[in-house]
Amino acid sequence: MEIRDLKIFLMVAEKKSISGASKFLYMTPQGISKVLKKLEEELQCQLYSRDPSGILLTESGERFRDYARREIEAYTELEKDILRIEQRQKKEVDLLSAYGILRLVTPDCITTFRDRHPDIQFHYREYPDLRVEELFAEREGNVAFSIGEFDEERYHVTPLESFPIKLLVNENHPLSRKETVTIEDMKDEPLYIESSQFYIYHLITEKCRQAGFEPKIVFQTSGFSLCHKMVSANKGISVAVDFIYEDMKKSGMKLVPFSDGIYEWKACMLTRKEEKENEAVRLFGEHIVQWLDKIQKGEIKR
Fold this sequence. Notes:
Blueprint: H1 3-15, H2 18-25, H3 29-43, E1 48-51, E2 54-57, H4 59-90, E3 92-98, H5 101-105, H6 107-116, E4 121-127, H7 129-137, E5 143-147, E6 155-164, E7 166-170, E8 191-194, H8 199-210, E9 217-221, H9 224-232, E10 238-240, H10 242-248, E11 253-257, E12 264-272, H11 279-296
Parallel strand pairs: 3-4, 3-5, 8-9
Antiparallel strand pairs: 1-2, 5-12, 6-12, 7-10, 7-11
Helix pairs in contact: 1-2, 1-4
């Protein structure tokens, strides 16, 4: 009995159809049927029956489904544990980064680290920040950059930099004439914002709901660039932080600070407390902190 066979069985149980499962597994129905027959012969029982609604699990099939789920979950955890061991021994950094943070630390930071440590294998993947948190919680990667507040009992949390989130408006918009704004000023304004996979989306929508209204979101996107483009065209308003605004700055726009609470884009670096120290990850963390310190001192330009 192989893990692959268990996954095939679970897909058939989920889809209640061999032909339906075949589309997801990229297998022929005949190949799937052969696996199911092998499992039944090995267990000496009938795992499923057919009726007009599709394939149904027998009582034995339901019990086997529970077993298959546990075995796959345990095997997945084993794979991740072994990967962590191998990464530590081979000196690997496997970085999960939220969009925007590599812009914050600059690509040169990564290039310099690679040049200084050619013996360290470096990999990175970028995702929306909430997806980074999900993957890291599932034990993907061995270091993460993300946005927000984090469980310091579970993770080593190193603050990188924080920026106030501000309202982004066209200079011809009436709100551009204000020195500060409140969340109520956003009511009924067409809003372009990053999607629900981003921390900033949830912060702004929750602030609006606390103020008693739903934001008028006309479009959700996976990055700041479209928001800036639409504000530049005076199609609506958005929110942004200083360093991204300066990096993507177009004429005719203005950032206006909020005055009614904490609106913060807080970038952090995470490692897991449960894992043995990875020398490569430790060196990378030290490099990041030193690099950002040089940016703050003006020795390196962002």
